[in-house]
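Progress note, sequence design subtask.
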């Protein structure tokens, strides 16, 4: 899994805070790296799980971030869409479809 972008690459308030408080950003990065090494999941599975968690949290920003990073890491649009479809029975149709549209912001831009 690739690391989170440098503070300059983060959107909006997240980027501002990362630039103004780089020690917080570095601590978050270290925690994420430690969490990734804390168990047996491979990088692809970890990325799909973090995307699912972002969807479950109803976070557009986190869903965008994990979808964008998943594509950069070679996951397919179909794999990302499947995560949204799996959310239907747990989170409900509207929540899952909203998440799908957030993923499609990167898998089907301009549609």
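Output:
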């Amino acid at each position: 899994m690739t690391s989170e972008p440098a503070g300059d690459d983060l959107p909006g308030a997240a980027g501002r805070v990362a630039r103004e408080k780089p020690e917080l950003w570095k601590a978050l990065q270290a925690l994420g790296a430690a969490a990734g090494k804390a168990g047996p999941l491979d990088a692809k599975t970890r990325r799909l799980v973090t995307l699912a968690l972002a969807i479950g949290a109803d976070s557009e920003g986190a869903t965008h971030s994990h979808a964008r990073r998943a594509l950069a890491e070679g996951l397919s649009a179909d794999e990302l869409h499947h995560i949204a479809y799996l959310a239907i029975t747990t989170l409900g149709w509207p929540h899952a479809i909203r998440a799908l549209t957030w993923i499609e912001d990167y898998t089907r831009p301009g549609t």
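Helices lie at 12-20, 22-37, 43-56, 60-72, 77-91, 93-107. Work on this subtask will continue into the next period as scheduled.
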